[in-house]
Amino acid sequence: MNRGRGRQRIFHGERTYEAFLETLKEATERFDARIHGYCLMGNHYHLNPA
Asked: pTM score, two decimals?
């Protein structure tokens, strides 16, 4: 889990969610990682890695 400082928003609209998911995709390919589940919320996210 990761949270914005002072519970501030880290996602400011659909484009930032999409950019985060694209970055996550690139990271999993680069490091051969697997993510079984995720939950993105306005001020934090959860990742469930393998």
From this structure: 0.86
